[in-house]
Amino acid sequence: MLNLNDLVLFAASVEHGGFAAASRRLGVPKSTLSKRVAALEDDLGVRLIHRTSRSFTLTDTGRDFYEHARAALIETEAAEDSVRRRVAEPTGKVRISCGVPTAQDYLAEHLPVLARRYPRMHVLVDVSDRRVDLVQEGYDIAVRSHFAPLPDSGLIQRQALVEDIVLVAAPMYLAEHGLPSGPPELSEHDALLTGQAGGDAWHLTRIDGAQAQVEPRARMTANEGRVLRAGAVAGLGITVLPERMCRAELSNGQLLRVLPEWTAGRVTTTLLVPHRRGQLPSVRATVEFLLDSLALS
Questions:
Q1: Is the pTM for the entire model greater than 0.70?
Q2: Predicted local confidence at residue 212, as pLDDT
Q3: N or C: less crowded end of the chain, CB within 10 Å?
Q4: What CA–CA distance (Å, rounded) separates 254 from 245?
Q5: Residues 102, 80: one domain?
Q6: Alpha-carbon Rg of the chain, whole angstroms?
Q7: How many domains does the chain have?
Q8: Three-state SS at 65
């Protein structure tokens, strides 16, 4: 089997155009380079380099061998780097920005696990609904839940989760007012609305792609999902919520799906990372952890 060190010396000699230049770059005596390349040629039984006191050129066989040798060295470096990344424990501070609902419904259960996994890392979470400038304010990661695609901001975007927005109501409400059989009947029902622009109407999509728009009767309006969820559980009317936000209530029977073949859009959770910050081991480890955790939750 060939000596990997000989491949390194051979490739360096070729890349620097001769033994003298490679010797200066590597800090290895010129005579050592010449002897090791000669030993490599003996092992292979071929001439790789035409060399005289004035010239240093590859043979055709030497050119082919160099291409394969260089590829092998690149793969060796990549293999070593992958191991070093895994064994190196992330350290230092990681600053995360997220909104209140995102912190409560998406991150709260996972961040303690992250902290236990990397005890030498300090996670700082800034929970605020204001839009922050990641680069100017020194944040490493922003976690955003959004309904429309995010604008191109020059940041790395990693999609973590996409979930349906579903229609739900309490069994007591449906027992009193009846279960609608289609979107048109929703206009005759009480609704808990978001209060956002266009929030008085629900834009619905059926699993086969059909579209519908309805305007239910507003019973209560709030721009916070947990308030709407509580109102729905209390039997005030039908509301629309991200599936994850009402998963527990659907499971225990406090809420029921209304028109389960229809959804009121989708909410996407995305991680935003400045390019340079994303190269730090601690940031990279946090991003990968959050992507894995949110995908499985």
A1: no
A2: 96
A3: N
A4: 13
A5: no
A6: 31
A7: 3
A8: helix
